[in-house]
Design brief:
The chain is an alpha/beta fold. The chain has two helices and six strands.
């Protein structure tokens, strides 16, 4: 019974297309990781619209909206993280720039799974 509950809980945390949006803190990473291998095996390019998420499958497309200014970007999961407590997603530098969060460094976002 405990395993079934755990599987159900994990499934509900990840959600899927059309599931309720998630809200949390986003941060970004860029030059210090540019050219290095991501958890998916892909080479990180700070100029691509990609992100790191702890649970979503690699290749999942996610719409990320900055709740402060309502700017959005669609990113693809290609890495794991963030590994800082309280953060939900790490965006590439380009994605963070598009939603206007570079100056803040960390900002509250809405995350919607597209596919």
């Amino acid at each position: 019974m405990g395993i079934v509950l755990c599987l159900y809980s994990c499934c509900c945390l990840v959600g899927g297309p059309g599931s309720a949006p998630s809200y949390g803190l986003a941060s970004y990473y860029g030059a210090e990781f540019h050219g290095k291998k991501t958890a998916s095996g892909e080479i990180f390019n700070q100029w691509n619209y990609t992100c790191a998420h702890r649970d979503l499958p690699f290749g999942t497309r996610v719409k990320v909206t900055n709740t402060k200014n309502k700017k959005s970007v669609i990113v693809r999961v290609n890495d794991r993280g963030p590994w800082v407590r309280g953060r939900l997603i790490d965006l590439s530098y380009a994605a963070a720039k598009k939603i206007g969060m570079i100056a803040d460094g960390v900002t509250k976002v809405k995350i919607e799974i597209l596919k």
